[in-house]
Design brief:
Belongs to the TACO1 family. InterPro entries: Integrase-like_N, TACO1_YebC-like_2nd/3rd_dom, TACO1_YebC_N, Transcrip_reg_TACO1-like, Transcrip_reg_TACO1-like_dom3, YebC-like. This is Similar to Teth514_1449: Probable transcriptional regulatory protein Teth514_1449 (Thermoanaerobacter sp. (Strain X514)). With 261 residues, the chain is of the alpha+beta class. Helices cover 54% and strands 17% of the residues. It has a 4-stranded antiparallel sheet, with helices on both faces. A 3-stranded antiparallel sheet has the order 5-4-6. Strand 1 and strand 2 form a beta hairpin. It is globular, with a radius of gyration of 20 Å. The two termini are 14 Å apart.
């Protein structure tokens, strides 16, 4: 899955770094400014990513903004707190969502893109029909073919994914995961908060817990098709209503390594 967070970090950081290069002064100050620019960009993009996840959790939880009544929302707020995300910003967002008269909803849209690759994007909007019209315009310009929901079950599996810090051996971790209802730390997305809480009760430090569309099979694309995919991802990322993008592309090894860092 393409990481909006990482893409955002890279773009914002590059812009800040270009500003830093205009500054003249001691090399030590330049290094400090450079490091601070990267950290500020990463923190800003992480806050944006958590804001999107909170909006999705509220929409998928019957627009309930109360963490004690919305397990998915509670789980995301706990994760944000551990990563030192400004909680005042997130609580302010929840207040706005609570007062909003227009309630948002989520919907998956799948399509076939460059090189025959399949994509699934998640929309979060109070006007899903309008958002899908925007997508259809992009599909026509990019020569993509809407799949009308055909690839969701056939080509992708909707799962809850949990990432924890290392604890014990792989065998013991796998056994613990199975005990709490997960298979290699992957579970049914509807029970994700419950599984997360049970793992934490077993003293696992959960780094992230979210649902994803995992491809059942992947395909390799040519250099030209990968460039077309990059252009398409950039256009999709510019649409505010899109909160996630999943695909079945086997990324080049160096790009996979970069996304893991």
């Amino acid at each position: 899955m393409y990481s909006f967070t990482r893409l955002c970090v890279q773009r914002v950081a590059c812009g800040l770094i270009r500003q830093d290069k205009r500054l003249k002064g001691h090399a030590k100050w330049q290094n400090i400014a450079h490091t601070k620019a990267l950290k500020d960009a990463e923190k800003s993009s992480l806050t944006l990513a958590f804001s999107r996840r909170i909006k999705v959790a509220v929409a998928e939880g019957n627009n309930n903004t109360k963490p004690n009544e919305n397990p998915k929302l509670s789980s995301i707020l706990d994760e944000a707190k551990k990563k030192n995300i400004p909680m005042a910003t997130l609580h302010g967002l929840l207040e706005k969502l609570e007062k909003s008269k227009t309630k948002s909803q989520t919907e998956f849209v799948d399509f076939r893109g460059p090189g025959g690759a399949y994509f699934i994007v998640k929309i979060l909007s109070h006007n899903v029909v309008g958002a899908k019209m925007t997508l259809n315009t992009l599909f026509r310009k990019s020569k993509c073919k809407p799949m009308e929901g055909k690839s969701k079950g056939a080509l992708f599996e909707h799962v809850g994914c949990i990432i924890t810090e290392h604890k014990g051996t792989l065998d013991s971790a796998t056994e613990d995961a199975i005990t709490v209802g997960a298979d290699d730390f992957v579970c049914d997305p509807t029970v994700l908060p419950k599984v997360k809480n049970q793992l934490e009760a077993r003293e696992y430090s959960v780094l992230t817990a979210d649902d994803e569309m995992v491809p059942k099979n992947t395909i390799e694309l040519s250099e030209d098709d990968l460039k077309r995919v990059d252009f398409l991802i950039e256009k999709l990322g510019a649409i505010d209503e899109i909160v996630s993008i999943d695909h079945n592309i086997q990324l080049p090894e160096e790009e996979v390594v970069e996304n893991k860092n």
